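Re-running the complex after MR caught last week's input typo. The corrected sequence lines follow. Everything else is unchanged.
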Amino acid sequence: MISEPTIPSLEQLDATGALRESFAAVDGGSRRDFLWKGTLAGAGFLAALSTPAWAKGKGPSKSLDLLILRFGLTFEHLQAQFYEEGLRIGGFSEETKRWARVIGAHERAHVQIIRHVLGPKAIPSPFFDYHGVTEHEGAFTKTAVAMEDLTTALLIGLMPVLDSPSLAAALFSLLTVEARHAAWVRHDRGLLPVGKPFDDPKTIPEVNRLVASTHFMKSTPKTWSKNAPRFTG
Amino acid sequence: MIRSRAATHTALAATGIVVAVAVITFGVTALAGVLRRHQPEIAPKRKVVKQSRISVPSPVHPAFVPRNHPHPLSGKTPMSRWALVRTAAVARAQPNPSAAIVARLATRTPEGTANITSVVGARQGSDGRLWVRVALPVLPNGTRGWVPRAALGGYGLVTTRLVVVLGSFKAVLFRGHRAIFKAPVGVGKASSPTPKGRFYIRDKVLGFSNPFYGPVAFGTSARSDSFTDWPGGGFIGIHGTNEPGLIPGRISHGCIRMKNRDISELAKLMPVGTPVVIR
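Corrected-run output:
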């Protein structure tokens, strides 16, 4: 029997403590410091956010739609790689593998389709460092819940600012799927699948700050060089 | 008396018929009136329905609709993982902070690239932390050691594997189970043999101007047993050549040489972190 008190607090869901810290920062406190950390860790996201349309708070426009799609692509990359890494190396139970396999496949499909729609305007995947979360079943599941809830909140937040009705229709089809992902993982953990009658929206900058605080996104390691080789020959 | 009763009955019957006809006529007339009164109300309802059909637009066609069904990971494709050495670390014989030191891992390679290591296992250490077993780029070749997970960065996953067969002077690159590249190679001379074992690609060097190495060179974790004092540590590379006529053969100081067009092709197919099996 699932009961109300089993709804986890953010503290319980937050594997690294970083999400909690960033929520606090969004509400005030160390916001400046937090934004700076976000800039360092989430360079890819903030680069996408640096377009004047978003910064000046303009209404819906085609350029804002493009920005949203690119942000969405990065966020889907984050999720797709998270599930893939967990499945490949996590050594999880069959129950966890079951939903992670299905949800991971969905996230990869989202990456594929958004990349296809963006064409040459698609941005490459960042490099991710999940700090061991994908190697621990409990941490993996908690992070999956937080991630799916966050995706749902992000998509709700995006809907009113979209310019294109057809893009809104497409993202709605993602929203319903992501919400069901969240419910599925919550249920698997013995949590109430739907905690509230209404979901709260989140803006791109809010989500960006949250993701940046996890330090999951890194710059790709520079594994190439133009220096003269010194191999034995 | 009887006649008058019969007449009375006849008169009553006639009256009854007349009343009945009158009631029916009234009823029909009243019903017709009711129907007439209701008729104008039905018509506007139809109009309302018609208007609502016009005012509700058709569903918007989504900007993107996936054509294919998503495929869950099969788990059948062989996959290897590598990790960035985030902080300089000590590799130990066991996942234990007091275990014997096997080697030290730097964050940079001799070529100035970010140092990576091939991950072969993971376990919770005696200190409760997660430890990772890695392949070490040290002599003797094939050395493994344990480092704290926290010393490493994010994982890279690769599905490629390079197999070099010294006896037949051939290199084959696999993606999953499928061979996607084959080329003849030059390998180490008898005096400076190419080491056998399991290694990995550490980095890629390109854009340099030394024809001896061709257009591209890969650095591996393998090290020469013969040239231990070679600049940079005597690492074995996979690279091009300015003497393609010598390939295939035992021609090198331990490196694996390919014709320039082959190494250029390989550079497009083989990512850093790819395991290398030399046998």
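None of the earlier attempt is carried over here. The longest helix of chain B spans residues 2-55. The longest strand of chain B covers residues 197-206.
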